[in-house]
Design brief:
The structure holds two protein chains of two kinds.
Chain A: E1 12-15, E2 18-21, E3 27-36, E4 43-50, H1 55-58, E5 66-71, E6 75-80, E7 91-96, H2 100-106, E8 113-120, H3 126-129, E9 133-139, H4 144-154, E10 165-171, H5 180-187, E11 193-198, E12 209-210, H6 213-220, E13 228-233, H7 236-249, E14 256-259, E15 275-276, E16 279-280, E17 287-289, H8 290-293
Parallel strand pairs in A: 9-10, 9-13, 10-11, 11-12, 13-14
Antiparallel strand pairs in A: 1-2, 3-4, 3-8, 4-7, 5-6, 5-8, 14-17, 15-16
Helix pairs in contact in A: 6-7
Chain B: E1 2-7, H1 8-18, E2 23-30, E3 33-38, H2 57-60, E4 64-71, E5 92-97, H3 99-112, H4 120-128, E6 129-134, E7 160-165, E8 168-173, H5 176-185, H6 194-208, H7 223-227, H8 230-238, H9 246-250, E9 257-264, E10 267-274, H10 295-314, H11 325-329, H12 336-345, E11 346-347, E12 352-353
Helix pairs in contact in B: 1-5, 8-10
The chains are: A alpha/beta, B alpha/beta.
Amino acid sequence: MIPRHVAVQSRRDRIKGVIVHNPYLPYPVRIDEITVETEDKSLKTFKFVFLNPGDEDNFAYRAGQFAELSIAGLGEIPIGIASSPTEKGFVKFTVFKTGKVTSYLHAMKEGDVMGVRGPMGNSYPWDLLEGKNVVIIGGGFAFTTLRSSIVHMLHPDNRSKFKDIHVIYGARSPGMLLYKDELMAWAERDDIHMHITVDGTDDPDWKYHKGFVPAITEQEAPPGTADTYAIVCGPPIMIKFTQPVLDKLGYGHDQIIMSLENRMKCGIGICGHCNIGKELVCKDGPVFTLEELNKTPKEY
Amino acid sequence: MKVIQIDKSELEAGLGKLEKAFRLIGPVKEKGYHLFKTLDSGQKPDLDYMNTRLSARSILYPQSEVMFEFSLDKADEQYAILREPEKDSQPRAVIGIRPCDADAYAVVRRNFDTPEYKDPYWLKNFEATTLVGLACSTPCPTCFCTSAVSGPFSDKNLDIMLVDNGDHYLARIATEKGEKLAADAGWQRPAEGAENRIEDLKLAAEAKIQSEISTDNLANQSLNDLYEAEAAIWEPEAFACINCGTCTHACPTCWCFDVQDETYGKSGFRMRNWDSCMYPLFSLHASGHNPRGTKTARVRQRFMHKLKYYVDKFEQGIQCTGCGRCVRLCPVNIDIRRICNKMNSYDPETCSCAVTS
């Protein structure tokens, strides 16, 4: 974990004379901007700014971490951080409308006040990925922390730390792709290999791939060498059919990195909800290698 | 460690003196069962008891607790911003807690007090509490503390341990907190040669424990092998389970909680409530997917957590102090002692357990 410096009086407390903060207390934030991401309006990106000075620094995060979004009177939901640590002044989350809190959130307006608690979890293994080829494979709306990772890696301060970057990202249709403008802009760059795909489209001007993510992975992903790592996020069915492809391409199970979701409450390894075996998805994860997951019960 | 003698006739006067500095909590009989309650002024704890029906968990970790409060009045400057409520930080003393329940605090502390995160609610309650335990001279038939991480005279997590010795208690003072409480109560009379007497009573009490579990092989077992032992362990053990959650609510070492917001007009509270891995909702995703969608998976979770995941994660033994409450209260006679012995003796080669009782 990144140590957090306690700055705000209300978060201070003393246990055995030592000042600690209450890890259950969200930072108050204001919704600065809401973007509808997909044509079916089921996904919206919320850009938050912190109300209290200092909280943004306390929220220092790494790509792949998540946070609890808190709405007073409704509860909290664990959501991956979609903005990148290189983007300052705000933090972004893309949220699929599915349950009680997310439905309420989708009805909230710019200017409304709510809470963000985090960052949580272990992030993608950035130290390990330095000097390596990185292959990002995503499907559907599981592209949020992958966007964070791409923006992080493409930042001028960071790009030289990585070798080739490949991105294979698919959705059902062009209108269901997240962050479409950014995807198109990345596709024009020469320092990242974008392989955008959709299951199908009748758009005659569609100039990217058509086909499922596993098939495009087989065509486009580089072979699994010792210094190539794949980060895979997507629906279970995509992961199921992508793994054999990566096996065939020669990726070791310690080179396949995945991010899990489970029902969570506290987000800090205490409430007991999200365990898979002895690992807690919220604190020991959410990022695991396939090799690590092979050692745990499949309770996710 | 110092041992003093407290005549039973002077216990009450001492407790009376403690009322000034401590909120006193003790076992009280209500509707046929003992439970821990804050004592009224002058009220005596009932120390003539076997054990409370529910554990002492709720003293440090209430079944339902306010974490934060907030205003839902849009005119309020602090609208929708969570703040911590005032909490009772007064020192309190638990008189007559059994060693198994005190040892359970050490077990759950590993969850609430980690290098990365401190649970402020549990820890503040823990720090404000002095534990005056009562050694068990007459254990229950379902007790197996001596082979779990406790014992009838275990005082490793007590500030003072009282030992019933006829017309008086021998009180072994183990900590500074205990010293202070004894001084405040005016309990000062040294008991010469009492250590030998306590040791004799301890051995006699341990000899009365009728059941034991074997845990020596749990750490060596493969986690996935035990998880996959459906036919030998989980299917037959879960067969009768009705997922009522009684075991998890009675248990002193269960720590899982749910977080829920409650609103009353224009004010609201973020609450935490004990939760139970026996309930399907515990692991249900918003999508409808449930990673532990069957009762067998949930029964397995409870026992794997206590007897394997905890063992592997903390390397401090099992997550069970042998209080026997879940054994006594389970409506369908699921017995953690039997399951533990099965897990300990499971052979993945033959998919069978050498010990099945």
